[in-house]
Design a protein that fits this description.
By secondary structure, the chain is α+β, with helices and mostly antiparallel strands. Helices cover about 30% and strands about 25% of the residues. A 6-stranded antiparallel sheet has the order 2-1-6-5-3-4. It has a 3-stranded mixed sheet with strand order 7-8-9, covered by helices on one side. Strand 1 and strand 2 form a beta hairpin.
């Protein structure tokens, strides 16, 4: 059974939900993204993910169509996408990916391109992470400085992550990864996750103004405070 995606207000087979070659997301890599997951078939932390998406859209001056707000519009779509794709994944939980670009070059008025689709979770990879951890190196490739764009933007412009993980591939270990430093040599994050260091009963994070505000990071810090 094929998964179903939402593309600019239309539901269609996921294989047809593609960016046009003249889309700014293809030509300039201007793509905002959120990836959340389901728990027992229901999407988790929808509003928190979409608030971050709304922040990115406001920064890139991408406006929601038809006078809607991003959280309301995409929240409805995310929940419906989960409902439409449960049968595809059976008893397994899955990811929901939200993509927004500024739209197509030459279009007037330019309307945003919006895609919401379902994707499998890489369970064997997560199983390995939970059981034995993930081997990491400190990459020579540095993270993008905030003078280029704010670290709080969740974007698909990830060439620096790709280069860092290519360095990590030399470890020749399954699912190895890389930690990126900033230009001053401080730890920031990996290509997949935020970085926390546990020292006794303390949890230490890189400064929040230098990293992506991960939803799992915020959840972890909240649970730590409650404990």
């Amino acid at each position: 059974m094929d998964s179903i995606a939402w593309y600019n207000h239309e539901w269609l087979p996921a294989a047809q939900a593609t960016l046009p070659l003249d889309d700014v997301g293809v030509l300039q890599g201007a793509v905002l993204v959120e990836r959340l997951r389901t728990v027992r078939g229901e999407p988790l932390d929808v509003e928190r993910h979409l608030r971050r998406m709304q922040f990115g859209c406001e920064l890139l001056e991408i406006h929601p169509p038809r006078g809607r707000d991003w959280i309301g519009l995409l929240g409805e779509v995310v929940r419906e996408c989960a409902s439409r794709n449960r049968a595809v994944f059976g008893a397994q939980d899955f990811s929901l990916v939200v993509i927004v670009t500024p739209g197509r070059i030459g279009e007037s008025p330019r309307l945003p391109t919006m895609i919401v689709h379902a994707a499998p979770i890489r369970w064997p990879q997560l199983k390995s992470f939970y059981r034995v951890g993930q081997p990491l190196i400190v990459a020579n490739t540095r993270n993008v400085p905030q003078e280029c764009w704010l670290p709080q933007l969740k974007t698909r412009s990830r060439l620096h992550y790709y280069l860092a993980d290519s360095e990590a591939a030399e470890l020749a270990q399954p699912w190895g990864g890389a930690v990126l430093l900033d230009l001053a040599g401080n730890l920031t994050e990996t290509s997949m996750a935020n970085l926390l260091v546990v020292e006794g009963k303390r949890i230490v994070s890189p400064p929040l103004n230098s990293i992506l505000h991960g939803v799992s990071l915020i959840r972890t810090l909240r649970l730590a405070v409650e404990m």
